[in-house]
User: What shape does this take?
Amino acid sequence: MPNRSLPPPDLLLSHATPPPVASARSLVAKGNATKPAARYHGTVQVDKLSAWLTDVADVYIGLAGTLKAFDAFARRFAETAADDAETRSTIFGEAEAALASVSTVDVDQIAKATVYIKIMKKVIANGSSYIADEIGRIQK
Assistant: This one.
């Protein structure tokens, strides 16, 4: 006897994954009625909404494998002019000091933080084109 509690399989498959929806979204800062609402017109997808919220509302929504403190170091490092080696070295030193303060018990955090340090070190050694070159190499 068939299970009557489930819809037919063809109906399940046709509605399994809805397509992304493109529509406008608004964000109004709490307690700030004078600032206009920020408008989002992109496709409703987690990564795109996360990036928008981070930019507009200063809300941190980290991607898998990221750490908030080290994302801040990486952002400052990337926003520093390529020819400003002194500032980049200072940021690198701050990130290394932060790595040293990460709990030795949390192996996962140490591994994630180490990736940030390795990339910054390679950018310092090989120049700003290192990241674009590495992305190109990986995408081959």
Summary: The CA atoms of residues 29 and 53 lie 11 Å apart. The two ends are 53 Å apart (CA to CA). The beta strands are 25-27, 38-40. The chain is about 55% helix and 5% strand.
